[in-house]
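hey all, quick one before standup. I had two proteins in the batch that finished overnight and I want to keep them in one place so we stop losing track of which output belongs to which input. First protein below, input sequence then structure tokens straight from the run.
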Amino acid sequence: MPAAPGRVFFDIDTQIDFLFPAGALYALGAEKLIPAIHRLNTYAASYGVPLISSTCAHTEDAAEFRIWPPHCIKGTVGQLKPTATVVPGQIILEKNELDLFSNPELPRILDRLGAQQCVVYGLLTEYCVKCAVMGLLKTGRKVKLVTDAIAHLSQADADRVIRDFIAAGGECVTMAEITAG
């Protein structure tokens, strides 16, 4: 299937420190998402859909560490993406803050890719995923959240994010809906 014009996938912060039980800021059960992230990223690569993968890339004195334990410090194993989530042609966009838009390259990349429809998945729903989906909606783009390819720390907070996302004009979809014919 050829890529839909203007469609871009966003793999948000699928990194070892969030995905694995030994990670510094592990989301319970997140390791079970790796096959879904692999499938979505492989789908994007196979069909020519641009894939932007954000990664936390913190310095040792990151402001976030006043709230959370140190995680995803540049150059550590925890900052890496698992091999199963890496595909050819993937755009890795590092950030030192929760918000994907804190990287000044993002608007230029979105314009260069002609991004009109954004498909978002990853970690953590109530933090970095929320910043991504709400930020993308604010740019006037259509945004779809793949609800069976996200993980969170708090179910109640994640549910609130999804309600707010839908109220702001976002659409919730499943991985099967995104990867079907």
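OK second protein, same deal, sequence then tokens:
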Amino acid sequence: MTVGVLALQGDFEAHRRALARAGATALLVRKAADLGSLDALVLPGGESTAMLHGIVRDGLEPPLNAFLASGRPVLATCAGAILLARRVTNPAQRALGVLDVDVERNAYGTQLDSFAALADAGSPFAGLPALFIRAPRFVRVGARVEVLARVRGEPVLVREGPVWAATFHPELGDDDRVLRAWLG
């Protein structure tokens, strides 16, 4: 499986390494032509405003929207989850509106407030180590969105069809359950 990683800003290299561990071939996506041959796409963490500027600057918005509408798998982590949301707050920001969730940016505080936690019991991802770095929070999850994992009772990993989003960084740990399940 060939998976693209949007490589405009953020730690896209960590995703490339994690995807390789999970058995996928990862290609960095920097221009529209890079999207054509992909089986799946990762929108990494980073800074969502900078990513939006890069998407517009590099003419990626129409081909990215076409990819997102194609039914191919997408995994968005942290800032990537913000990009896919229907509504973004703290502050308000434009998003691509692909996933029926509302997101609050930097919901847990600043970089200094970053933390690690284990996913709550009761899901296939119970006990999953989750690292939150200036993380967003899902403040609303639509009726067709499935919550796959929670931390402290709050949704942190969701899926709507082939589109998955995490408010944490599954690529930064050694537990590849999220990537393997998504790739499967």
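Flagging for whoever picks this up: The helical segments are 12-21, 48-57, 61-69, 79-84, 177-183. The first strand starts at residue 2 and ends at 6.
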